[in-house]
Design a protein that fits this description.
By secondary structure, the protein is an alpha/beta fold. The chain folds into 3 domains: 3-48 and 104-155 and 280-344, FAD/NAD(P)-binding domain (3-Layer(bba) Sandwich); 165-276, 3-Layer(bba) Sandwich (FAD/NAD(P)-binding domain), CATH 3.50.50.60; 358-467, Enolase-like, domain 1 (2-Layer Sandwich). Helices cover 30% and strands 25% of the residues. The chain has 14 helices and 23 strands. Helix 1 packs parallel to helix 9 (330-344), helix 3 packs antiparallel against helix 4 (88-98) and helix 3 (56-73) crosses helix 7. The chain starts with a strand and ends with a helix. The model has no long low-confidence stretch (mean pLDDT 94).
Length: 471
C-alpha cells in the first residue's frame, strides 16, 4: 500500500495519519516517516497541495513572464528601441512543465522513498482515533492511528454568495493556472494578492482586465500606501479598478459574463475570476468528532499545534497550515509543521510565534510586509512611531528608472524601542523584506538597526533612510 486508489477493506493500525498532503502535511508525514513511523498520508488531490500545482510556483511563472514584457516596454528612452509582442503559449508550456502537467508521481515517489504510504481519497475523521478514506468510486478504508493524527487539509477558494454566480462557469485560480489560452477580457472579483497578481500578469500579456473589490481599497490588510501605489501602477498598465463597489449579481449568456454592481456599474467580460480569499470547511473532514465547532473558520490549536492532547491509549491530534487560521502561506505551514513534528516526537524546542510572519504580494512592484501595520499597532494601544522613505526619490529608484517606484514604511513601538512591523514596496520588495523580518522576529533595538551599514546603492539602503526617522 505504498500508493493506491484500491483501498483495503479491513481497519488498519498505523502510527500516524496525516490528512492533507500540501506543503505542511507533506513535511510532517515525511519527517515522521524518516523517524521510522508507519505513516499514511491522505489527500484527494495531488500530493504537494495547492502551492506547486495551482498556487505559488505556477503563478510566479506567469508573474515573471509578465514582468519581462513590462521590462521590454521600458527599453525605449532608457536603452534603445524594442518591439514587444506578448505570447501566452510559452508561458502555458512552462507552467505545464513545472507542474508535470498536473501529475504528482514525482512527489509521491519522493514520499514513498522515505518510508511513507499514500492513499488518494477523501479522508474524514470518524472518531478521534479513526480516519475513513473514500475514493472516487466509493471504496472505503478505515485507518486507526495509534500515536498521532495531523490535520493539514488546507483551504479552498472562497466563493461569495453573489446572486447568480454559482450557476456560471466562473474561474478560480486553478482554472486560470491551467488555461492554455488567454481570454480577451477578464473580470476579477477580489482585490487581494491572488486577484492582483494574476490580473496584472494577464493584462500585461494581452487580456483586458477589470478588478472589482467590495472593500474601500486594494490589499485591505496591508498599509493604505500599498493601495495608493498599486492603484496608480495597475491603472497605468491599463487595468480598470473598482473599489468600494460590491457585486450585486452575476449572469452568463454562454459567451460573456455580466456583473451588476451595487453602485449601478454594469461590467462584462469573456471570463470571470473569483479571487475572494480562501475558506476552510471543518465539517467536510469531520472536525466535529474532536468536540470543536465545525462551522468555525479554523481549528483551535495551542502553541505546539495541538488540537487534542493524547489520551490514554489514544492518539493526539495536531493541525498545521491554513486550517489553523494563522495565515494561508506555504512558509507558515512548513514552520508550523516543524513545531508539530517536534511536539509529536517529544523533542521540545521553541513554540509557535506569529509576531513576525512575512507576506509578499508578487505584483510589480512587489509588496512585502511583516508584523503589524500602523493601524494594527494603534489598535493594540502601542506608542506608534513611523519611518518612511519614497523609493522614487532614492538613488536606487533613479538608477532603476521606470518601474523603480515604491516605498518603505516602518512601524515602531516607542515604548519598547523595537520595530513591530514594516512594508517594502519595490521591484524586489520580497527580497528586501528579509532584513525586516529578522529585525522584527529578533526584536532588534532600533538604535542597533540605525547603526547598521546598508550597501550603496541598493534598495536595502532605503531601510536605513526610513530608520533615520525613528532614531
Amino acid at each position: 500500500m505504498a500508493v493506491t486508489d484500491r483501498l483495503p477493506q479491513q481497519p488498519q493500525q498505523v502510527d500516524a495519519v496525516v490528512l492533507g498532503m500540501g506543503p505542511g502535511g507533506e513535511e510532517v508525514a515525511g519527517r515522521l516517516a524518516d523517524a521510522g513511523w508507519d505513516v499514511v498520508g491522505v489527500d484527494e488531490r495531488l500530493l504537494g497541495g495547492e502551492c506547486p500545482y495551482w498556487g505559488c510556483i505556477p503563478s510566479k511563472i506567469m508573474v515573471r513572464s509578465a514582468d519581462l514584457v513590462a521590462e521590454g516596454h521600458r527599453i525605449p528612452g532608457m536603452a534603445g528601441t524594442a518591439m514587444v509582442r506578448p505570447d501566452w503559449r510559452p508561458v502555458a508550456r512552462r507552467v505545464r512543465g513545472a507542474t508535470d502537467d498536473w501529475n504528482d508521481k514525482v512527489a509521491v515517489d519522493r514520499f514513498v522513498s522515505r518510508g511513507g504510504r499514500f492513499l488518494r481519497g477523501q479522508g474524514r475523521l470518524t472518531a478521534p482515533d479513526e480516519v475513513t478514506v473514500e475514493t472516487a468510486d466509493g471504496t472505503e478504508a478505515v485507518l486507526r492511528p495509534r500515536r498521532a493524527v495531523v490535520v493539514a487539509v488546507g483551504s479552498e477558494p472562497a466563493v461569495p454568495p453573489v446572486p447568480g454566480l454559482a450557476a456560471t462557469p466562473y474561474w478560480t485560480n486553478r482554472e486560470v493556472i491551467e488555461a492554455a489560452d488567454l481570454p480577451e477580457s477578464l473580470l476579477v472579483l477580489g482585490g487581494g494578492a491572488v486577484g492582483l497578481e494574476l490580473g496584472q500578469a494577464m493584462q500585461r500579456i494581452g487580456t483586458a482586465v477589470t478588478v472589482v473589490e467590495a472593500a474601500p481599497r486594494l490589499l485591505g490588510q496591508e498599509e493604505p500606501e500599498a493601495d495608493e501605489l498599486l492603484r496608480w501602477i495597475l491603472t497605468g498598465d491599463g487595468l480598470e479598478v473598482y473599489t468600494g463597489n460590491a457585486p450585486a449579481s452575476v449572469s452568463y449568456d454562454g459567451g460573456r459574463f455580466a456583473l451588476e454592481c451595487v453602485r449601478g456599474d454594469r461590467l462584462t467580460a469573456e471570463r470571470l475570476l473569483v479571487a475572494a480569499g480562501r475558506r476552510v470547511d471543518l465539517a467536510r473532514f469531520g472536525a466535529g468528532v474532536l468536540e470543536v465547532d465545525d462551522t468555525a473558520d479554523a481549528l483551535p490549536v495551542d502553541a505546539r499545534m495541538r488540537v487534542r492532547t493524547p489520551l490514554a491509549g489514544g492518539p493526539g491530534v495536531w493541525a498545521v497550515g491554513d486550517v489553523t487560521g494563522h495565515g494561508a502561506f506555504t512558509h507558515l505551514a512548513i514552520y508550523q509543521a516543524d513545531v508539530a513534528v517536534r511536539a509529536i516526537l517529544g523533542e521540545g524546542g521553541p513554540q509557535a510565534e506569529y509576531h513576525a510572519v512575512p507576506r509578499v504580494t508578487f505584483t510589480d512592484p512587489e509588496i512585502g510586509a511583516v508584523g503589524l501595520t500602523e493601524a494594527q499597532a494603534r489598535q493594540r494601544g502601542l506608542q506608534v512611531r513611523i519611518g518612511r522613505t519614497d523609493l522614487s526619490r532614492s538613488v536606487r529608484g533613479y538608477i532603476h528608472g521606470p518601474g523603480g517606484e515604491g516605498f518603505v514604511k516602518l512601524v515602531a513601538d516607542a515604548g519598547s524601542g523595537v520595530l513591530v512591523g514594516g512594508t517594502v514596496a519595490a521591484p524586489c520588495g520580497g527580497e528586501v523584506l528579509g532584513a525586516l523580518t529578522v529585525a522584527v522576529r529578533a526584536r532588534v533595538p532600533i538604535a542597533e538597526l540605525s547603526r547598521t551599514i546598508w550597501a550603496y546603492p541598493t534598495f536595502h539602503r532605503a531601510l536605513g533612510e526610513a530608520l533615520r526617522e525613528l532614531a
